[in-house]
Amino acid sequence: MAELTLNRNDSAGAAGAPIKPLMKGRQTRAAILDAALKLASHMGLEGLSIGALAEVTEMSKSGVFAHFGSREELQISVVREYHNRFEDEVFAPALRESRGLPRLRALFERWVRRVSAEVDSGCIYISGAVEFDDRPGPVRDALVTMVQTWQQALGRAIRAAIAEGHLSADTDPEQVLFELHGLVLALHHDARFLRNPAAATHARAGFERLVAHSASSAAPAAPKLRTRPARKSRIASPSSSSA
């Protein structure tokens, strides 16, 4: 399965450049970016501004500006950082699972956990799509690229499940991908907007129903699903054991 990763770090710079100031600059930029990501998760990408970020980080506007150069570059950097963290939490651990349906199930399960954990903040992929769906430009392009990269990874996992014989040969990967994305959108809506504590349970049941529709006799057995959320005040989620 091809990697999802992006180039995360800029080159180290010209030979002979001072190392300590460079490291300090990167640490400062990382701290600003972490604060920006938290702001964007609660206020949306449009809620980001150099001024608001300067206030939160207790830095000068010129200090923040020196690291990003513009509000647009700040927004794009936040999108990329969100994608990197999504990759680390959702994609990379799932690669430890066997190729085919076990890996596809792990990808979906970790996606569900991620969205469930974001119920009080929000998914930048989803909120960003609402903010920028009709606004062409570099920020929208960055969002589209990140979402398409994730969908391509899911598509490869679906096709691998077909190749392994876990899903029937006539399974349409694009249709499965579309329905998986639909389940997560429904999860986000019901968990965040309706505050339905059973939303994650319904999403998992939907996944298993979708898989069962296309599963072959060689498909690995599905794990037993929890029938109700553990706590009424929170979205149901499994224990935080690794995939």
Q: What Rg do the Cα atoms give?
A: 20 Å
- The first-level CATH class of the domain at 73-214 is given as Mainly Alpha
Computed structural class = mainly alpha
CATH architecture label name of the domain at 73-214: Orthogonal Bundle
**Terminal Cα separation, in Å?**
17 Å
**What's the CATH topology label of the domain at 73-214?**
Tetracycline Repressor, domain 2
Q: Helix count?
A: 9
Overall strand count:
0
Helical coverage, percent range: 55-70%
β-sheet strand percentage = under 5%
Task: Note the overall shape.
Answer: elongated
Write the CATH homologous superfamily of the domain at 73-214: Tetracycline Repressor, domain 2
For the largest beta-sheet, the strand count, sense and barrel status come to: none
Unreliable stretches (pLDDT < 50, length at least 5) are 5-15, 227-243
Mean pLDDT rating: 84
Q: Sketch the topology as an H/E string, one letter per element.
A: HHHHHHHHH
